# Entry
Amino acid sequence: MDQPVSELLRTRGLRSTAQRRAVLTALHGHAHSTAAELEHRIQSADDGSGTSGTSPRLSRQGLYNVLEDLSRAALIRCIEPAGSPARYELRVGDNHHHLVCRSCGRIKDVDCSVGRAPCLEPGDDAGFSIDEAEITWWGLCADCRPATAQRPPRH
Amino acid sequence: MDQPVSELLRTRGLRSTAQRRAVLTALHGHAHSTAAELEHRIQSADDGSGTSGTSPRLSRQGLYNVLEDLSRAALIRCIEPAGSPARYELRVGDNHHHLVCRSCGRIKDVDCSVGRAPCLEPGDDAGFSIDEAEITWWGLCADCRPATAQRPPRH
DNA sequence: GGTCAAAATTGACTGTGTCAAAACTGCCCG
DNA sequence: CGGGCAGTTTTGACACAGTCAATTTTGACC
# Structure
C-alpha cells in the first residue's frame, strides 16, 4: 500500500523517505491539517493503515522541510487563512477555494467553477502577471450560527 | 488638523487618545503597513504633519490594542496575506481586494466591481452563512517579472 | 555492499502576537 | 475647574509558528 506513494514521490524527483510517506498518508482523510496536527498524528501513532507502515520519528524541522518539498513538487498545497497557522491538503491542481467559519475555524473546500487558475481576473491588474486568484469565503458554519439566524430573518 | 480625527474616534464610541490618533495618521499614505512598520514610524519620528502633532510613546501591546480597537470600530481593516504579518489599511467598507507580488510582496488594491460583501457566492455554501468573499490575486509585479516575460510569449 | 548527494536531526534562535496585572488618563459630572 | 472612574496604556513575561546552520543519517545508484 506504500508502493504507490513511493513511486509518486520518485516520479516527482523526490526520494521516497519514511518521513515523506508518513506526511502524505497522515494527510489522507485529514485535509487542512496544521504542521502541529501532522506532527502529533505522525509521532503519537502508527499511520492507521493497519499494514506494515509504522510511523517514523519526525523532527519539527524535518516536517517543515517535507512540507516545503511536497509543496514545491505540487503533491500538497498550503493555505494560510488569516488567524490560522499554515494548513495543508492533498487536493492540488484543481484551483479550488475555501469557506472558513469565523467562529470555530472549520474549513470547507469549494469547487472552482472555472477549474483552472486564475479563475477570476481583476478589473485592473496594475501591471502584474497574475497566476492565481485565491478566494476565501468567511462566515458562520451551521453549527456556530445562532439559532435565530438559522433561517434568514423575514423582515 | 487633529480635530477631525478626534471626532471620528468619538463618533465611533472610542476615546480620542494620542496613540489612536498617531496610528490613524501614520496610516495615511502608508496603506498595508505592518504593526512593526507602524511602530517604527510612530516611535522614531513626529507624524510628519509639521503641525503640533508630535508622536506619543506607544508600547507594542498598546499598538496591538489600538489596531484591534480601530478594526472593531471599522476605522481600519486588517489583511493577512499568506507569508506576511498582518497589514493594515484605512480603506474600509468598500470590499476591495488585493493583488500581491510573489517576489517582492508589493500589494495593490483592486476595486471590487460589485462593491458590497460578499461580492461573490460560492457554488455550494455548505450550510454557512457567508458575509465576505476575500479575493487575493497572486503574481509578479512589473518590476519583478523577468524581462522575457514583459510581453506575453507569442506562441 | 560502497559511495555520496539528498534528506533528517539537533538545538539555538527570531519574529509576531498574546496574557495578566499595574499604572495612567480622557472625559463626564458636580 | 477639579475629582473620579471606566477605558486605555504600559510593563514584562510568555507562547506559538517557523527558520537557520551545522552535523548526522539514509536512499538509491553503481
